[in-house]
Amino acid sequence: MRELEAQVAVLLKRLQELEGRQAKNSHTSNQPPSQDKPWQPKSERQKTGRSSGAQPDHPGNTLKMSAHPDHTVHLSVTGHCTCGQVWDDIPVDTQVTRQVHDLPAWQLQITEYRADVKICPGCHHRQRAPFPTHVTGQVQYGPRVHALTVYLNVAHFVPLERTSEILRALCGARPSDGTIALNLNLAADRLQDFESHLRTALTEQPVLHADETGSPVNGKLQWMHVVSCAQLTFYGQHARRGRAALEDMKILPNYTGILVHDAWSSYFKLPAQHALCGAHLLRELRGLAEHHGQVWAGALREALRTVYHELKAGTLSPEARTAFERRFDELLEEGLLANPAAPPVPGRRGRAKQSHGRNLALRCQQHRCAVLLFLHDRRVPFDNNQAERDVRSWCVKRKVSGGFRSAEGGQNFARIRSYISTLQKQGLSVWEGLVSVFTGDVLMPNFNL
C-alpha cells in the first residue's frame, strides 16, 4: 500500500510538472513570444483607468504644410459668372492653397567622368587626371545605390533577391546577389573603426544591458549577442553562447560597471556588478503561482510589483523599502519550505534535479543584491527591456529572411546593424550614414556620452 501511495505521489508530481510546462508562455516563463499559443496573453501593466489610444494632451503628428514647396501650380478662375461677368477681367481677391507631398519619379542618373590624358612633349610621359576615389570601375553603381541595397537588407531584413527586385521596380537597376553581398562586405570593412570606438565607449558606460538569441548560420545554431545602452548598440555574431563569445566581443570582460541581464550563468563570471531583470522574475513567479499553485510565488510577485510602481511614482518611503526587503526574505524561505530538496537518486552521479520553484527561490537568495539593486540605485532599471528591444530586431530578421550562409556574413551583418541602431538611437540619419560609408567619409555617432 505504501509503495502504491509513493508511486501515486511521484506520478502526481510528474503530471503537475508536465501541465506547468504545457501552460508556459512568454508571460509565465522565459519562453519567447513567438512560441506563444494564438490567444491574448496577460499583461503585467497595472490599469490606470484611462482609455486606450492617444490621450487628450497628446500633441499628435500630422502632415503639415511646407513653407517652401518645390513646385507651384497656379489655378486660374476662368469662364463666366452666373451673372455673365467674364472672370478673366476680375482681379484675384485671395488664394486657397493645398499641397500634395509625393515622391519624384525614380530613375538612375548616369554620370560620366572623363579624365584628361596628356603626354609630355619632352620625355613623352603619359599622365591621366585622377578619378574620384569612389569611381573605381569603368561602369559601376554609385554610393546611393550601394547604400540602398544595404539599407533594405540590414535595416529592414529584405533578402538579397527581393532587394534586387525592389531596385528594379523603383529605378530600373537590378544589382545581382553577388553585388549586394560585396556591398555588405565593403560596408563592414569600412565600419571597423566605428566598432573599435563603440567597444571603448560601451566599457565607459555606468550601466549596460546584455542579452542573446539564436542566429542560425548555414543551418546550424549560433548566437547573436547584444550589449547596449540608451545611446549605443553592439551586436556580435558568434558560434558560442557562453564565456568564449563574451571574451571575443572584448567588451564585458573588461567592464566593471553595472550589467543588467537575465541571470544567464556566463554573465556572473564577469567582473561587473550585476542587476537581474525584474520582468523575467515576475513572469516566472506568475507561472509558479498559476500553474503550480505556489502561494508564496503569487505573494512575492504582488509585493514586487507594488514596490516597483511605488518606486516609479516616487512614493516609496525608506520604511516601506525595508519592510519589503524583510517580506522578500520571508517569502523566499516559504518557497524553500514549499519546495523541499530532492533526495539523491540511487545509482546516479551528480546532484539531483530540483524543482523549478526551489531553483528560483535559491537563485533569488544567492543573487539577492542583484535582484534588488533597482531599489538602491536609481540608475538601475527594474527590467532588461533595453537589451530585449535591441535583440527583438534580430528575431524579426530571423523570421523574415532566416539565418546566414556563412559566419562571416553574420559578423558583417552584426557590425552594420550595430552602426544603424546606434545612429537611430542618437537621432542621426541612417540613410546619410550608409551613403557616407560608400563615399569614404563615414558619419560617426557621438561616443562621448
Which properties best describe this structure?
single chain; 449 residues; alpha/beta; Nucleotidyltransferase, domain 5; five-stranded mixed sheet; two-stranded antiparallel ribbon; 44% helix; extended; IS66 family transposase; Transposase-related; DUF6444; Transposase_IS66_central
Structure characterization notes:
This protein has about 450 residues and is of the alpha/beta class. About 45% of the residues lie in helices and about 10% in strands. Strands 5-4-3-6-7 form a 5-stranded mixed beta sheet, with helices on both faces. It has a two-stranded antiparallel ribbon with strand order 1-2. Helix 2 packs across helix 3. The longest helix has 21 residues, at about 1-20. The mean pLDDT is about 90.
Give a brief description.
By secondary structure, the chain is an alpha/beta fold.
> What is the ordering of alpha helices and beta strands?
HEEHHHHEEEHEEHHHHHHHHH
Helix content: 40-55%
Q: What's the helix count?
A: 15
Low-confidence stretches: none
How many β-strand stretches? 7
Region (Disordered): 19-67
Protein name: IS66 family transposase
Pfam families: DDE_Tnp_IS66, DUF6444
Domain DUF6444: 4-62
Structural topology:
Blueprint: H1 2-22, E1 117-119, E2 126-128, H2 143-155, H3 160-171, H4 177-190, H5 192-203, E3 207-214, E4 223-228, E5 233-238, H6 243-249, E6 258-261, E7 273-276, H7 278-292, H8 295-313, H9 318-338, H10 356-366, H11 368-371, H12 373-376, H13 385-401, H14 407-425, H15 430-439
Helix pairs in contact: 1-7, 2-3, 2-4, 2-15, 4-14, 7-8, 8-9, 9-10
